[in-house]
Amino acid sequence: MNYGRFAAVYDDLMEDIPHEQYVEWIAETMRSGSVLDLACGTGVLSELMAELGYDVTASDLSADMLTVAQRRFKESGLDIPVLQLSMDNLEGLEGFDAVTIAIDSLNYLAKEEQVKKTFEQVYAALNTGGYFFFDVHSVFKVDEIFMHSPFVYDGEDLAYMWHTEKGSAPHSVIHDLTFFVREGWMFERFEETHEQRTFPVDVYKEWLTEAGFTVESVTADFTEDAPNDESERIFFRAKK
């Protein structure tokens, strides 16, 4: 997938995500240490963690996303290494006190084997006693809420139409997005198609355990509450 244009508008789409709360969630468990931020996107979370004193390495599969992230780090005066790699291929990486996969990025792995391999690779990259933080869309969100499309946003410099349909795999969704981005006095149109898949909470817990992790907490929607049948975003904290 070409993330070129998408990378340019990604921050506008994510402005409602409370990244600061995500960092607070991590800081409740560990106040310092080395962190590998997988699927870092444009580097918002990496930047916030580095500003709090974490030793951050940022990674993403998309070169376009990393270009935006590097620009962000340079403007902030932060020395954050960047790596271009897939979540399920961390061969040779080790020595981290924590690994994060934030903002439902794990849901871009469509196959069970990819998720399992990611958990195994993350486990290998962590120091003993290290933590794995990630969140995913709930089954309810994918199967029910996402099916209420179309969703429309109309801003001064950006507008989009977002249509969804069920994917071929269980608990999967196809997002078809049409963007209109201001270029001077005109708007340029481009389209993106993204597919995501999630799994039940107990399945994630089982795979984490199989990889060697101890699952320490499972919460929902940026709260300390356990997930219920209508939770939308599920947060996992696991320990090696």
Explain this structure.
The chain is α/β, with parallel strands linked by helices. The chain starts with a helix and ends with a strand. About 30% of the residues lie in helices and about 35% in strands. The strands form 2 sheets. Strands 3-2-1-4-5-11-10 form a 7-stranded mixed sheet, sandwiched between helices. Strands 6-7-8-9 form a 4-stranded antiparallel sheet, covered by helices on one side. The longest helix is centred in the N-terminal third of the chain and has 14 residues, at about 65-75. It is globular, with a radius of gyration of 18 Å. It has 2 domains: about 1-135 and about 200-240, Vaccinia Virus protein VP39 (Rossmann fold, 3-Layer(aba) Sandwich); about 140-195, Single Sheet (N-terminal domain of TfIIb), CATH 2.20.25.110. The chain has 7 helices and 11 strands. This is SAM-dependent methyltransferase. Pfam families: Methyltransf_25. One of its GO terms (biological process) is methylation.
Considering the chains and any ligands shown, give keywords for the structure.
240 residues; alpha/beta; Rossmann fold; N-terminal domain of TfIIb; 11 strands; 30% helix; globular
**Count, helices:** 7
Based on CA inertia axes, which overall geometry fits? globular
Topology order in helix (H) and strand (E) letters: HHEHEHEEHEHEEEEHEE
Question: In what range is the share of β-strand residues?
Answer: 25-35%
Largest sheet: 7 strands, mixed
**Spans of 5+ residues with little confidence (pLDDT < 50)?**
none
CATH architecture of the largest domain: 3-Layer(aba) Sandwich
Organism: Planococcus maitriensis
InterPro entries: Methyltransf_25, SAM-dependent_MTases_sf
GO molecular function: methyltransferase activity
Domain Methyltransferase: 35-130
